Amino acid sequence: MDLEYSKKLMDILIDNASRILNANFGVDRAESTFIDIIDLLREDQSLADQPLKAYFLAKVRKTLEGPDPYGLDEGSVPMELIQLAVHELRWPEFRALSQKRRILEAYDDHWMNREFYRRYRA
Q1: What is the pLDDT of residues 83-109, one digit of tens each?
Q2: C-alpha distances in angstroms, 27 versus 47, 79, 88, 115?
Q3: Contacts of 35 by beta carbon, 8 Å cutoff, 6+ apart
Q4: Residue 69's pLDDT band (boundaries 50, 70, 90)?
Q5: Sorting pLDDT into bands at 50, 70 and 90, what band is 47?
Q6: Mapping DSSP to helix (H, G, I), strand (E, B) and coil, where does residue 92 land?
Q7: In the chain, where are the structural domains located?
Q8: Pairwise CA distance, residues 95 & 107, whole Å
Q9: Rounded CA separation 81/71 (Å)
Q10: Measured between alpha carbons, how far is 76 from 69 in angstroms, rounded to an integer?
Q11: Residue 75's pLDDT band (cuts 50, 70, 90)
């Protein structure tokens, strides 16, 4: 998949997830969009330089350094998506970023926010 196309798709999906959360529909309604983003990032893992991963991490870094800790400002990554990405992808780069906000706990297999996702319910 073309990198510019992938970036544009990721931006649209992140914006859609943010709109869902900002409208107070909850994580369960944004979950499928979150999973689409995770799947897009997994597709990128087959590429040697993983340009989409770098793009996503830059967006996460910008969000974590911004004034809104929940990532609901325009152009930000929702904190719920960041935590899910940490939990699903387990990238080492997240550890360095985790010092800024409470995302380190999402590495745990028994992460307390798992209960909010249908994906993890028994």
Answers
A1: 999 999 999 998 888 765 667 788 888
A2: 30, 11, 16, 10
A3: 119
A4: low
A5: confident
A6: coil
A7: 3-120
A8: 9
A9: 9
A10: 10
A11: confident
